[in-house]
Amino acid sequence: MPSTVVHAGFALLLAAGLLGAYYDRRALAVLLVVLVLPEADSFLGPIMPGAHRTVGHNFVFPAVAALALYVDTRVRERSWLRDRLSPRWIAVAWVALCVHAFAHVAIDWTHLDGVNAFWPLRDRFFQLDGKAVYSTADGFVQTFVDVRVDPESGSRTVDAGAGGTSESVHVNNPVQPRDPDVDVEEPVDRRFPIANSGWRLYLIGLGLFALVARRFQGDGVADDA
C-alpha cells in the first residue's frame, strides 16, 4: 500500500501550492498530523472487521467537515471560527481538508481494494482502476466506469469499481499484516512500506524538492500570524 511517506510527499506539494503566504513550519506540522490521522483506523481492526480503509478512509467525513467550514466561514453572519482563529488558521483548515481527501484517501482509492468511499452512509469499497486511451481504431476508450446495457431488457448497470464490504475486505497493514480470518502457520511479517514502486519514490522526492524550494523562496509568513 502507499506508505505514509508517499502520502506526505503529495501533501508537501499541496501545501506548497495552496498555503501561499501562510506556508511555514507550524502549518506544515498541522498538515502532517492531519495526514497521518486516517491510519489510526488500523488500530480498530481487532475490534471492528474492515476498519482499516473504512473509518478513516472515506469521503463522507471530509465532505461534512468542508460543508461545516464553508457555512461557518462564508455563510453565517458571525463566524464561530473567525471569532477564535486568525485568517491564517482558517486557510490552513481548508488546506488540511484537501490534504486529507486528496493526499491520503484519494491515493489509497487507487490501490488494492480501494477505500470504503461512502461509509458510514454505505458500506461498499470502491477502487479507482482502469485506463483511458484514444485509439485510431477504436476511438476513445475508458474502463474506469463500466456501463453495460442488457440487450433483452434494456436495463443499464454502472460499475465504478465497486468491491466488497467491511465484512469481506481486509487490507493488510502493520497492525494486522494478514487477514485474521485466514489461518496461516508462517511467522507474522509486519512490513512498514516506504516506496514500493518508482512513481512512489519519485513522489517522495518531488515533495521534498518542493519543501526545499519553498524554503529558498523564504518563509512568506503573513502579517496576521
Automatic annotation (TrEMBL):
The keyword Acyltransferase does not apply. It comes from Halorubrum ezzemoulense. Keywords: Hydrolase, Membrane, Transmembrane, Transmembrane helix. This is LexA-binding, inner membrane-associated putative hydrolase. Pfam families: YdjM. GO terms for molecular function: hydrolase activity. The chain crosses the membrane at residues 6-23, 28-48, 54-71, 91-112.
